[in-house]
Amino acid sequence: MTESTSDQPLQNRRIAIPESRELDMFASLLERRGASVLRCPLVDIRDTPNPVPVLEWLRTFCAGGCDDLLLFTGEGVRRLLSLIEHHAPDLRERFITQLGTVRTFARGPKPGRVLRELGLKPTLVADPATTPGMIALLQTLDLKGRRVGVQLYGTEPNQALMDFLAGAGAHALPVWPYVYADAAADAQVQALIQAMQQGEVDAIAFTSLQQVERLFRLIEAERLRQALAHTLVAAIGPIVADALRAHGVQPQVVPEDNFYLKPLTQALIARLGS
After folding, report:
1. Could you tell me if 101 and 128 lie in one domain?
2. Are residues 71 and 176 in the same domain?
3. pLDDT tens digits, residue range 180-219?
């Protein structure tokens, strides 16, 4: 039976997605609604090339070295578990026990989903799912003298958060369990930009600031801004939207709340739906 236009509101729309980690899921959400998806994963996520400091952090955490734990990404929790599995499987039970003992603060819903897979849940969830949102949540608490583990990502030091914790009298113990690397070949990215310049792409949906940064590293800024001017630009949430604005690009589609793939898909449908 042929699906009606109302069942496929994105029919005949060409949407570029630079997502990598959840590429198939995002593509499926769009394709089920009739979109033609141009897959161009810009950033790959890999385990840290040097696991030694992460393992040292894990041993400190498992020995009761943290009173609180700030979880910035669900991917970070998964990578910590993966590093344990590959390098120190004896730590797994103690790690999960400690996750259930310390206060855990999640930046948005994604870390909480991973904790629930372990039979746990975060103590509190920062909303909005941003560094300012996390700081606003922590401002309601007395952190003086507390040892605060901080799961970060890439090589981003998150100086704003570190400065806040220091000012609050906390002792921060940061850990970076994964790094970002280029994914799609440069030629593939160049071809996508050319298609956008020629008006062959209806929308591009950014899901991380690293995707934005790679594009502006690879493509001359004025050419890239011109290409994006021919294309509807969507951002999954305020962090990505701010990264685009910092480069002179105003995103036209940003979900009002709940910054993950399904709300982004719904926002695209609202803007592009037939």
Report:
1. yes
2. yes
3. 888 888 999 999 999 999 999 999 999 999 999 999 999 9
